[in-house]
Amino acid sequence: MTTSLGAPPAPPAAVRSRQDRGLADRIALSAATRQGVHLRTADVHAWLTERRRVNAFQVDRIPFAELTQWRFEDGSGNLVHRSGRFFTVEGMRVVDRDGPGREWRQPVIRQPEIGILGILAKEFDGVLHFLMQAKMEPGNPNLLQLSPTVQATRSNYTKAHRGANVTLIDHFHRPDRHRVIVDVLQSEQGSWFFHKSNRNMIVETVGDVPELDDFRWLTLGQIAELLHEDDLVNMNARSVLSCVPHQDTTPGALLSDAQLLSWFTGERSRHDVYAERVPLCSVSGWRRGKETIEHEEGRYFKVVAVSVRAGNREVVHWDQPLIEPVGVGVTAFLVRTIGGVPHVLVHARVEAGFLDTVELAPTVQCTPANHAHLPPRRRPPFLDAVLGAPASRIRYEAIHSEEGGRFLNARSRYLVVDANATEAGLDPPPGYAWVTPAQLSALTRHGHYLNVEARTLLACLNAGALRPQGGM
């Protein structure tokens, strides 16, 4: 049969498997491989030390008046970049109609452009390795941490700063769809960002990748060991790693997937929270000084300014505002083994800056100092169970930094804590549910289900924080 023009018919469309059945085995092998072919795990610290030595890094706090590239906008008072790009510090008005007249205003970062957080993968000696970068961020307490291969806003990779090209960006800007392992939009902190999303990606390459001083190939097993150390694997890397499609070997869960999704949809539906951007100058309860914008009671966070020098960045000198939290946070999953399967207690958490208002969060996520003045009934649920847990019940603990490009010295104590039936029953209070890490991993294939703190803890769970310990 031919068409009316005499051309042969097009071949029938080919179908393919909806999943790469061999990928789970390759991921498992990488996770089980504790020594890579390029860098021993024990040598990672020496490499980072050497990169700090050869690159000049300096971060100084400065008054707002010394910002050369930023200004307070006339009329709104918003803190904006002179190019109109990057991000702005604005005000946010929040009305929580669930509570009795709860309304507040606060500063918030608005960055409408979607950035790329991308990790390049490649097989060496039959084992998947992942290309990690020793990246300086001005807000990191130790400046240099392991980051994704590429960590760039649209303003960065379109060179709004008029600096150098973002290294290896071409692997992620228009990736070969046949080589994509992970590609999903995920949220960032809903308490400090307004509707912020980044594209989390893992892309495999079979081609040659140039050997660069600030980059090293590591297996998932090596990265898992490094996740047990303080201030080493940065937030963006943890977010991307949480999306790795690990194989589910558990026999089931307390809630079926349909029940979990129904519960979560109900949680999203029942909350009535309204958030809108407002001029920064209209934010009541906060005061602007020469060097900080801070809450009148000294809680929550401050907006500060810094001047930065970094010899290995696309731009070697710049200044910018940062959000500086007041106090170290506590972020924790309570865990119980149910029917032989580890489960974690998740919280359907409302954060005004989320696109969908509610995302799944850890059992506890707060800065305890912000709640110390409150009576026990008004403090975050389960906080006392986490803070009072003996060392024998702590399955995982490390201090991790939050995103160092926007936050200054933002650190949280991340924990996985065994709970007993008295502290956390199988019928948790409204807003909480028992789920398995495998169910959380499945949800990371879709955007805006798990918040960034839950994704960090999921990456830590995948790094071996849990082992089955019998049923309850």
TrEMBL record:
Ranges for domain dTDP-4-dehydro-6-deoxy-alpha-D-glucopyranose 2,3-dehydratase: 41-244, 258-461
Q: Name one GO molecular function term.
A: lyase activity
What's the protein here called?
A: NDP-hexose 2,3-dehydratase
- The scientific name of the source species is Streptomyces purpureus
